[in-house]
C-alpha cells in the first residue's frame, strides 16, 4: 500500500510528464524529421532495388525456359529427322521388290541374245514352238498379223469367241522368247492406274508392288521383249484404269514417258525410280483380250485408234511338228528388223493412190477419214507384213477392215445398209474382184447385223 501511494504521488507524476514532453520535443525536432525522411528514402530505395532484382530474376528465368524449349524443339526435330532417316535407311524400305531387282541386276552378268534371224523366221518358229511344246495351234496368217501388229503400236487387242486362244497366243509368245508373259486379270471395279501398279500404304509405310510394276522396272534394265496381257481388258472402262498409259504411249520420245508411282522421294528408293517416277519402257507391249457381250464395256474409238486389232474367230487345225526352238530375241534386234522391213518393202505408189482414193470415197459418202495416225499405221504395218511372209494387198485388206471400215458401225445403219452394194462395187473396181476379201466380208457382216 505504501508503494502504490508512493508511485502515484504528485512529485512522481510531474517527473513522468516532463519525460514525455522531452521525448516529444526530441521526436518532433528538425533532426528527427530528417532522420524520418532518411529512413523512408532508404526504405523506398531498398524496395525499388528488390523489385528490380525480382524482375531481373524473372527475365533470366524466362530466358532459361525459352532456351530449354528451343533446345527441346531442336532435339525433337533431330529425332524426327533421325526417325525418318532410320525408316529410309532400314532394310525394310517401301520398295523391297524393286530394290531386290537392283541387287539381282547388279550381280548378274551380260545377257546373250539369239539375234541372227528374220521376221519370217520368227513367225515360223513361234508357230511351231506353240504347237510342239504348248499344243496351241494358230494359222500362219494370224501369227504374221500378230508380229506385224507389234511393229505398229505397243497396244494389241485380241478379239474373238471364248476358247479361240486369245490369252494363250500372248502367253505362248512370252514362252517362245524365254521371257514369261505377265498376265493381269482386269477387275470390274478398276478405275485408276494404282489398280495396275499398286499404291503406298501409309499405315505399313510400304508400297504394294504389283507384278506389273516389277516387270516395268525390270524392263528398264534389260533389252528383252516384255509382253503384258490385260486379260478381259474391257470388263472395266479402259479409259479409266489405263488412261495414263494411253497418254504416255503416244509420246514419240520414249525417254519422256514418265509414269508417276509416288509423290515424294526417299533416299532408299530403288535406283531407277527418280522423283517418284519411272519410265514406261519401249520394250514392253500390252496385249488386251476383249469380249463383246453384255458383261463388258464397249471399246472406244480412242482405244481402237491407238491399238492394232487381231480377230481370232476360229481354232486352227492341229498339225504335226518335228522340232521347234525358242529364241531369246532382243528388243533392239526386233526394232532393227522392223525398220529394215519398212525401208525395203515400202507400199507401192499404185497402192498408195488406191488407199487415198478409198479414203476420199469414205469421206464423201460417210464422213469417215483415215487421219494421220491411221495412215502412218498403214505405212508401218504393210511392209512388216510383207517381211513376215504376207502379201502387200493382203496386208492392206487386213488393216483397212479393222482400222477404217469398223467406223461404219458408228454411222446411221439404215443409210449404211442402203449403200453397201455400191461400196462393195467400188472396192472391187478399185482393187479387183479377187482382192480385199476381208473388207468385203466385214461389209457384208455389217449388212447382216444392221
Automatic annotation (TrEMBL):
<dbReference type="GO" id="GO:0005524">
    <property type="term" value="F:ATP binding"/>
</dbReference>
<dbReference type="InterPro" id="IPR011704">
    <property type="entry name" value="ATPase_dyneun-rel_AAA"/>
</dbReference>
<dbReference type="InterPro" id="IPR027417">
    <property type="entry name" value="P-loop_NTPase"/>
</dbReference>
<feature type="domain" description="ATPase dynein-related AAA">
    <location>
        <begin position="156"/>
        <end position="306"/>
    </location>
</feature>
<protein>
    <recommendedName>
        <fullName>ATPase dynein-related AAA domain-containing protein</fullName>
    </recommendedName>
</protein>
<keyword id="KW-0812">Transmembrane</keyword>
<keyword id="KW-1133">Transmembrane helix</keyword>
<dbReference type="GO" id="GO:0016887">
    <property type="term" value="F:ATP hydrolysis activity"/>
</dbReference>
<dbReference type="Pfam" id="PF07728">
    <property type="entry name" value="AAA_5"/>
</dbReference>
<keyword id="KW-0472">Membrane</keyword>
<feature type="transmembrane region" description="Helical">
    <location>
        <begin position="31"/>
        <end position="53"/>
    </location>
</feature>
Amino acid at each position: 500500500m505504501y508503494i502504490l501511494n508512493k508511485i502515484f504521488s504528485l512529485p512522481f507524476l510531474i517527473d513522468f510528464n516532463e519525460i514525455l514532453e522531452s521525448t516529444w520535443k526530441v521526436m518532433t525536432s528538425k533532426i528527427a524529421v530528417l532522420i524520418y525522411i532518411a529512413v523512408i528514402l532508404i526504405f523506398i530505395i531498398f524496395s525499388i532495388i528488390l523489385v528490380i532484382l525480382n524482375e531481373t530474376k524473372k527475365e533470366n528465368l524466362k530466358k532459361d525456359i525459352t532456351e530449354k524449349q528451343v533446345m527441346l524443339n531442336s532435339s525433337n526435330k533431330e529425332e524426327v529427322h533421325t526417325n525418318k532417316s532410320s525408316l529410309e535407311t532400314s532394310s525394310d524400305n517401301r520398295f523391297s521388290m524393286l530394290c531386290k531387282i537392283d541387287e539381282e541386276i547388279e550381280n548378274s552378268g551380260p545377257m546373250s541374245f539369239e539375234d541372227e534371224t528374220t521376221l519370217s523366221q520368227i513367225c515360223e518358229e513361234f508357230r511351231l514352238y506353240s504347237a510342239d511344246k504348248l499344243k496351241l495351234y494358230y494359222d500362219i496368217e494370224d501369227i504374221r498379223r500378230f508380229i506385224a501388229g507389234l511393229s505398229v503400236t505397243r497396244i494389241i487387242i485380241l478379239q474373238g469367241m471364248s476358247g479361240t486362244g486369245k490369252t494363250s497366243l500372248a502367253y505362248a509368245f512370252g514362252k517362245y522368247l524365254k521371257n514369261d508373259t505377265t498376265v493381269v486379270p482386269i477387275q470390274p471395279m478398276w478405275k485408276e492406274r494404282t489398280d495396275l501398279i499398286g499404291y503406298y500404304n501409309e499405315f505399313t509405310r510400304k508400297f504394294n508392288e504389283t507384278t506389273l510394276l516389277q516387270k516395268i522396272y525390270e524392263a528398264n534394265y534389260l533389252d528383252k521383249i516384255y509382253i503384258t496381257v490385260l486379260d478381259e481388258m474391257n470388263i472395266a472402262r479402259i479409259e479409266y484404269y489405263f488412261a495414263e498409259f494411253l497418254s504416255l504411249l503416244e509420246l514419240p520420245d520414249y525417254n519422256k514417258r514418265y509414269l508417276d508411282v509416288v509423290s515424294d522421294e526417299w533416299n532408299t528408293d530403288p535406283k531407277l525410280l527418280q522423283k517418284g517416277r519411272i519410265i514406261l519402257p519401249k520394250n514392253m507391249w500390252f496385249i488386251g483380250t476383249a469380249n463383246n457381250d453384255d458383261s463388258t464395256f464397249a471399246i472406244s474409238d480412242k482405244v481402237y485408234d491407238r491399238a492394232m486389232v487381231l480377230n481370232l474367230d476360229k481354232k486352227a487345225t492341229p498339225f504335226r511338228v518335228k522340232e521347234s526352238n525358242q529364241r531369246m530375241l532382243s528388243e533392239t534386234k526386233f526394232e532393227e528388223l522392223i525398220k529394215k522391213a519398212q525401208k525395203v518393202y515400202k507400199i507401192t505408189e499404185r497402192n498408195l493412190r488406191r488407199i487415198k482414193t478409198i479414203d476420199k470415197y469414205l469421206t464423201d459418202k460417210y464422213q469417215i477419214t483415215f487421219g494421220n495416225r491411221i495412215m502412218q499405221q498403214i505405212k508401218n504395218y504393210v511392209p512388216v507384213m510383207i517381211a513376215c511372209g504376207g502379201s502387200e494387198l493382203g496386208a492392206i485388206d487386213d488393216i483397212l477392215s479393222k482400222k477404217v471400215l469398223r467406223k461404219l458401225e458408228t454411222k446411221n445403219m439404215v443409210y449404211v445398209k442402203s449403200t453397201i452394194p455400191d461400196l462393195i462395187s467400188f472396192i472391187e473396181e478399185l482393187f479387183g474382184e479377187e482382192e480385199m476379201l476381208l473388207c468385203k466380208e466385214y461389209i457384208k457382216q455389217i449388212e447382216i447385223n444392221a
